[in-house]
Amino acid sequence: MRAVLQRVRRAAVSVDDHTLGAIDAGLVIFVGVTHEDDENAARWLAQKSATLRIFEDDSGKFNRSALDIGASALVVSQFTLYADARRGRRPDFIAAARPEIAEPLIERFVALLREQGLRVETGKFQAHMLVEISNDGPVTIILDSPRQQQGSKGEGERG
């Protein structure tokens, strides 16, 4: 699984001019699923997202997590996170999992975030969504579940 986390002051997602979810300070988490992903990937990604220290403490250091500050999360499914645009001018999405695989894993990811204590709002799977984000910082972090990281580590990198 892959997630793009953005620290936000506020965010909202709507479909057909109807707001589905909105948050104040917290995280927008765009989530994509690939073919090998499973419950373990969802669990790892949810734990990492909730506890990643990307919020500032009183000294201005990144020492607080979403859980530490009582932040909310807005989760939006996004198969385009697995786009491959290395060849040609039109990306392919072969690496993205089919909806019948991706949707339950994203739902599980959301449930796991909630189990950790985050208030979570969501978009609508397979819908054309309008996502409004007020990025704070800006702070944007890309997370790949461990299985995805294995093939991309360079020499000398830590896990």
Q: Give start-end ranges of low-pLDDT stretches.
A: 151-159
What is the terminal separation in angstroms? 16 Å
Helix content: 25-40%
- In N-to-C order, the SSE pattern is EEEHEEHEHEEH
Tally of contiguous helical segments: 4
Oligomerization state:
single chain
For the secondary structure, the number of strands is 8
The CATH superfamily is known as D-tyrosyl-tRNA(Tyr) deacylase
CATH class group: Alpha Beta
Q: What overall form do the CA principal axes indicate?
A: globular
CATH topology: D-tyrosyl-trna(Tyr) Deacylase, Chain: A
Class by alpha and beta content:
alpha/beta
Strand content: 35-45%
Question: What does this entry look like structurally?
Answer:
- This protein has 159 residues and is an alpha/beta fold.
- 25% of the residues lie in helices and 36% in strands.
- It has 4 helices and 8 strands, in the order βββαββαβαββα.
- The protein has helices at 39-51, 66-69, 99-116, 146-150; strands at residues 2-15, 18-23, 26-32, 55-56, 62-64, 72-77, 119-122, 130-144.
- Strands 1, 2, 3, 6, 7 and 8 form a 6-stranded mixed sheet that branches.
- α1 (39-51) packs across α3 (99-116).
Quick summary:
With 159 residues, the protein is an alpha/beta fold.
